[in-house]
Amino acid sequence: MDFTLTSDQSALVSALDRMATQFESKPTDFHGFALVGAALERELEEGGYFDIAAVPELGPLSAAMAVERLAWLPCTAEIALSMLVRPQLPGDWPRSLAVVENGRPGRFVATAKTLIIIDGDSIGLALAKAGTVEPVESLFAYPMGRLTGQLDVTPLPASDAANLRKWLRVALAAETSGLLQAAIASTVEHLSVRKQFGRPLGSFQALRHRLAECAVLAGGVRWLALKAAATADDGDAALAALHAQDSATRVIYDLHQMLGAMGMTLEHPLHLWTYRMKALLSELGGRGGQAGAVARHCFDTAA
How many domains does the chain have? Predict the structure, then answer.
């Protein structure tokens, strides 16, 4: 596929880069797990960025690029579902969105206005109500929440549910792509300044080889995510989500090993990306769920 940017896409990327600059630093007084980007979300709302996919000159591919770019930031906001999934919902459902999968706690559930309720193969939509959700303390670098009460759920027809699941996979892959690249960049920076035996750690061949492997995996996730957004194909979406979750599992382990004890502290920002990826690893059935989807959509099996 030709991923050469159009003039409209180039303008969007430039605008996102300018806006993201003010959110690229981790506050020095922050030592927690989830750095919530409320100001970032307001900027995106006021700038109309959540409607990118609906603009004919931009479309879902540009929305996926925006999700990827914003995932680089150390702060987090509900972006991927609003940009890539909300345009696929039947009717006008308010943002922000969150997924409740088989009753488990989920990202942004405590603050979302629209909940996507996944129960096995069924998917429904519901408006969140006061007293039916609550925040959950978590090591994940997202604000987590859970459903505690009964909601009026609007079930989706099988075709709409399948389409929604496809775009949930695209959103997962696009967000993971940005998180992978940001985590690798943070590790490269550390290995470039941290010295051992009088040399930067990044000059040792063993670490360079492992970093190169991480970069290759991240690159594959990026291109598969963008392809899935461009083609809107079920098989492409399943492959992108599978490669994203599989690669993140490997890369998270490698990067934290490379940083040693520093990688296990809250002072270093690595967890702001890797522990967001950890939350994404189990979504939509995890790697097993994506592998089954790849079997169905790419190899015409009943898996």
Answer: 1
